[in-house]
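User: Hello, beginner here. Can you help me understand these amino acid letters and fold codes? It all follows right here:
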Amino acid sequence: MVFLSLIVPMTGGLNSTFTLGYFLIAAAQSFYYGLAGSIGIGILSSIVYIFSCPHCLYTMHWTDLSLRVGFLMLFAVMMGYLSDRERHIHRQLVNAEQLAAMGMMSAQLAHAVRNPLSTISLSAELLTDEIKKCEGKDMSEADTLIKSIINEVYRVNDVVEEHLNFMRRSKSGQKRADISAVSDSLIRFLEKEALRKGVLV
């Protein structure tokens, strides 16, 4: 701006082609600082523009000068608005990519966890059948342990399923929901675990 303030008076005053440099500088700075900073930048650029050629103020009509200053302010604010909008869209894209990565990782984790759970559950059921064949022996404690294993397998599987459901809801975006329905869903989710621990929901 200092360079422009020196060269504008020597090249025709406020009618000089170099006055377009004020618009370029205001645009660049407004895009960098965003909408909030663009207002101050527009005001500062307008002041420097007006006083870059003080003697021109006596020969130029005030409506012409007002229109030029108004366009300079409007240009700066528009660039600040576009900057904020572009940053907002960029943040949304980054968030979407992060959610997609988390969803993929969750699916892989669920697959890696469910395979061993299926093996454990099947092995426990086979072991139960083998225990039933042992007639005349007290296998009540072994039967209790196997049932406990199966219950814990189901509990871990429920946790994995809830995690996957949460990730699907996260990727779908924000939407309105009935708080009663959400509460009922949460109660149903916690009810099994509460019953296992003897807590009445």
